[in-house]
């Protein structure tokens, strides 16, 4: 029997503070330690998802796209992941194809290397456009059925 490698994903910057502090970690709180996270050997760092986008804008008055750029400028070894809800992006409503394509392209342009795409309805049709666009932008795509 061959040994298997166990990989680790850091979710501190998305689910960690979402679960513990209502997603209220600001960029000023995050930036001092992301470079150290990069050195810790994670398989990837999960940075943002729907709640992070909402809270950044409505409560922290920060730009979630800027958070991507700031992290990308400090993390050079570990892939950084953004989670989207497929055709719903970061909310619970469906968006037109051109809006979805633009959002995925901006994820890549802002320095991210992975995207995890899922759909709460488990309707794979809602994943297809995001996955195609992400692949065309050179992003690693992880599609989730929940």
List the helices and strands and how they pair.
Elements: E1 9-10, H1 12-21, H2 27-38, E2 44-48, H3 50-58, H4 64-74, E3 80-84, H5 97-109, E4 114-119, H6 125-136, E5 140-145
Parallel strand pairs: 1-2, 2-3, 3-4, 4-5
Helix pairs in contact: 2-4, 5-6
From the structure above, extract its key features:
6 helices, TIM Barrel, 5 strands, alpha/beta, 146 residues, five-stranded parallel β-sheet, single chain, globular
**Would you list the SSEs in sequence order as H and E?**
EHHEHHEHEHE
Find the CATH superfamily: Aldolase class I
**Low-confidence parts lasting 5 or more residues at pLDDT below 50?**
none
| The CATH architecture | Alpha-Beta Barrel
Biggest sheet details = 5 strands, parallel
**Total helical segments:** 6
CATH class: Alpha Beta
CATH fold-level topology:
TIM Barrel
Helix percentage: 40-55%
Our estimate of the beta-strand percent is 15-25%
How many β-strand runs? Answer: 5
For the record, give the distance between the C-alpha atoms at the N and C termini, rounded to a whole number.
Answer: 31 Å
Task: Supply the number of structural domains.
Answer: 1
Q: What structural category do the secondary elements indicate?
A: alpha/beta
